[in-house]
Amino acid sequence: MQGTGLRAKTKPVQDKIFRISHLSDLLENYLDSDQVRDVYRAYLFGAEAHDGQHRVSGEPYITHPLAVAKILADMHMDYQGIIAAILHDVIEDTTTAKEHIEIEFGKEVAELVDGVSKITMMDFSSKAEAQAENFRKMMLAMFKDIRVIMIKLADRLHNMRTLKVMRPDKRRRIARETLEIYAPIAARLGMNKIRLELEDLGLAALYPNRYRVLKNSVAKARGNRKEIVNNIETSIKRRMRQEELKGKVVGREKHLYSIYTKMVNKRLSFREVFDMYAFRIVVESADQCYRTLGVMHNLYKPVPGKFKDYIAIPKSNGYQSLHTILFGPYGVPIEVQIRTPDMDGVAESGVAAHWLYKTGSPNSPASMRAREWLRNLLELQKNAGDSLEFIENVKIDLFPDEVYVFTPRGEILEMPRSSSVVDFAYSVHSDVGNTCVAARVDRRLVPLRTQLYNGQTVEIITASGAHPNPSWLSFVVTAKARTNIRHYLKHLRKEEAVELGKRMLDKALRGRGSSLEAVSDEQMEGFLKVSKLKEHQNLFEDIGLGGRLSMLVAGQLLALEGEEGDLSTDGKSHPLVIKGTEGMVVSFAKCCHPIPGDPIVGFVSTGRGIVVHTQTCNNVADYRKLAEKWIDVEWSADVEGDFVAEMRVDVANQRGVLATLAAIISDMGSDIVNVDIEERDGMTNSINFILTVKNRKHLAEIMRRAKSIKNVIRISRKKS
Question: I need a surface site. Which of 17, 69, 377, 620 has the fewest CB within 10 A?
């Protein structure tokens, strides 16, 4: 048995030596011999740390870090990045500490490895929360060093290549995460080669049958296209020679995921998508790019509105190229991309071009755009409430399509497609977004929800006292806008919750013959200490949001003084007064739509504050068993605001009745929120209006006016 064990252990070691020697050969092409030796030393360190560990496929675990290092070596990653790739799972999967790596290989390598490592020592309420927190940690590490995400992308790429050994449910989860997060990040960083492979592997794992059918269809169609591609390529080369333009012409085939998404999103057949012929032309300079564009437009007629100049206005990931679509021979559309060799390098490798090409520079368009995106991510994470919200915002921010709009000074701002005026305001500055009240697009006043298109000039009008509106969340698309609006609303809700909680506690204390003013500092400090709360505001907020019951807190506060307190002099507990200005912490139930003048009761809901119902609401009877959650409330004498009510009108089925009713409602100073028409017997209809009113008197006046219409049969207020 011992001999068998030795042989079993010796074989993987030989396999490892072969693999590291192959990696060393790659590294010797661009690294110094001392640096290659350091990489080999890191391999020995990693092999020892992972000794005895195997992948699901049965291979020694060290084969995975080596494969990741090879992917990065193909990008000419520096030796510290290669070392970190070899050691990227050491902290997470072995007993090796970050400090040990720092002693052996330096602080820079240790920080890179720690940035890629998952958080394993914390408890989370759900797997989604743990994944989101790991992603947040990685993105923050990436802000310090872009190599963190490059190692993670290479790690994900090798995992996707070897995904077949995993369980089907795990395959689908990893594939979905790859398509939703990692492939878009690779696109955002301009790492096109990695993105394309991640997308195709993700599609194959998520939808294996669709992938197989699509792959077979492409293989079958390719043979029929070969002659057409060759003829077009020959025509382009001949015309370029005539114009004395030197360049490389390559027929380009769309990858499977691109074909699949176009078929799904645009509801096209395979033939409609695959009938597009694509060519890439690489010429010596930007000047020649524009000359070549003219030659192409002279050779084949351009399709109007399908030209894009990404050289003058690069994409968000630094990508530069001229794009045009032409009417080709045989009636087929031709997509042509024209760029220089440097642009081609950035298009394929993005931020990796800094390492891959000697001409690459930290100040290249790709690197500068990547740093700008990372700065935006840092701002997002500062304002995000938790990791799940942060990852949601990052997903929103990973839009592939852009529109380009201008400020009044002529500066170009790049926005995701479907961006609104509010998105534009926040992209200028957070303060501009927070205080915007109106906008001019091409000198015309427009609503804030107006969607922007390429080439428009946008001017934002601000007011010092203005604040974000919760309704903006229904139409903004950028993560920056969404995060800033939510951040403001959270603070606003906190202030409102504190004020409501204070009133609720005072009411509960008065019901016991005391008041908030009568509670001593010692009593309050004692309660805060027992409850593990930092200050008064935290207690009031907790009560206002329904986290604590004011009656219980009042009892505990008075108990600390050694007395429970007596009822107030009239023997009754005074109800909480609803003013209508409490904001988001007091809401009105949609089941019964209470309005001023209705007898009401309050239900304390955790996280929402107080939900007000009418006393006759059916849900009040259902919830009676939760007596401790109910609170006595009443309308203030000077209640303010508009309240939603529901009105049902039975009418004869005659033309113009709805228009007449709508006009009367509008004349009476009410807004219609929603209308629903229900046909009854062919002769009559029931029209259900949801409208805004000031109080019961206002609603009664509307109903009285509506009842005077000739074809109205019956009118009533609709309740639960």
Answer: 17
Which residue numbers in the chain have pLDDT < 70?
Answer: 1-19, 118-142, 223-224, 274-275, 352-401, 546, 559-574, 582, 584, 606-608, 622-625, 627-628, 720
Q: Which value, to the nearest 10 degrees, does the dihedral of the CA atoms of residues 401, 403, 407, 408 take?
A: 180
Instruction: Determine if residue 684 is left, alpha or beta; phi over 0 gives left, psi from -120 to 50 gives alpha, anything else beta.
Output: beta
Report which of 478, 485, 479, 480 is spatially closest to residue 419, judged by C-alpha positions: 478
> In this structure, are residues 352 and 407 in contact, taking their beta carbons and an 8 Å threshold?
no
Strands of 553-619, DSSP E: 576-578, 586-588, 600-605, 609-614
- Cα separation, 441 vs 432, in Å, equals 16
Q: Tell me the one-letter amino acid at 348.
A: E
Alpha-helical segments (H) within 560-636: 618-622
Residues 573 and 567: their CA atoms lie apart, in Å, by 7
Domains recognised in the chain with CATH numbers:
2-161 (1.10.3210.10), 217-356 (3.30.460.10), 401-477 (3.10.20.30), 487-632 (no CATH), 643-717 (3.30.70.260)
Strands 412-416 and 333-339: unpaired
In contact, 214 and 270? CB cutoff 8 Å: yes
Q: Which residue among the candidates 51, 59, 92, 253 is catalytic per the annotation?
A: 92
244 to each of 239, 286, 288, 344, how far by Cα in Å? 9, 16, 10, 21
- Indicate the helix (H) or strand (E) that contains 433: helix 430-434
375, 140 Cβ separation under 8 angstroms: no
Query: Tokens 């009113």 identify what position?
Result: 693
Q: How far apart are CA 669 and CA 442, in angstroms?
A: 34
Q: 585: which DSSP letter? A: G
What amino acid is encoded at 79 in this protein? Y
List, for residues 114-140, the tens digit of each pLDDT value: 888 765 444 555 566 666 666 666 666
- Asked whether the beta carbons of 245 and 204 are under 8 A apart, the reply is no
Is the distance from CB of 543 to CB of 506 less than 8 angstroms?
Answer: no
Rounded Cα gap, residues 699 and 706, in angstroms? 11
- 459 belongs to the catalytic site: no
Answer for the pair 6, 49: CB distance below 8 angstroms, yes or no. no
The pLDDT, as a whole number, for residue 374 is 65
Single-letter code of the amino acid located at 53: Q
Residue 401 annotated as catalytic: no
Catalytic-labelled residue, pool 93, 102, 309, 348: 93
Instruction: Pick the closest to residue 644 from 705, 598, 599, 607 (CA basis).
Output: 598
